[in-house]
Amino acid sequence: MRALLWLLLAASVVANVFISTFAGWTGGLQVAGSVCTGTVLLGSAAGLWLTRPRDGARS
Q1: Would you say residue 28 lies in a domain?
Q2: Is residue 16 part of a domain?
Q3: d(CA 42, CA 58)
Q4: How far is 51 from 41, CA to CA, in rounded Å?
């Protein structure tokens, strides 16, 4: 589960950089793409935070 969340986090960062820099999207399309990738990023970050080890042990 955590591996999938890390993959989603990394993919959303890469997708956001692509949309912002290389895709050539402008206006509403760029905003919509950034909102979607940002939502995935925040969701995966929250999932990683909620599934973190809580006993003080590092994995």
Answers
A1: yes
A2: yes
A3: 23
A4: 15
Rounded Cα gap, residues 52 and 58, in angstroms: 9
Residue 58 lies in a domain: no
Domain containing 37: what range?
Answer: 1-51
pLDDT-derived band of residue 58, with 50, 70 and 90 as boundaries?
low
pLDDT of residue 53: 85
Residues belonging to the chain? 59
> What span, in angstroms and rounded, lies between the C-alpha atoms of 40 and 21?
19
- Count of structural domains, the chain: 1
pLDDT tens digits for range 13-50: 999 999 999 988 889 999 999 999 999 999 999 999 99
**What are the residue ranges of helices labelled H in the chain?**
2-21, 28-50
**Residue 42 φ then ψ, to 5°:** -65, -40
